[in-house]
Amino acid sequence: MSLSLEVETPRLVLRQWRADDRKPFAVLNADTRVMEYMLPLTGPDSDALAGRLAAGIDEHGWGFWAVEAPGVAPFVGFVGIKPLTPLLPFAPGVEIGWRLALPFWGRGYASEAAEAALRVGFEQIGLREIVAFTATGNQRSRAVMDRLGMIADANPFDHPAVPEGHALREHVLYRLGREQWQRQTNGDADAGGAPVAAA
Question: What distance in Å separates the CA atoms of residue 7 and residue 12, rounded to the nearest whole number?
Answer without folding.
Answer: 8
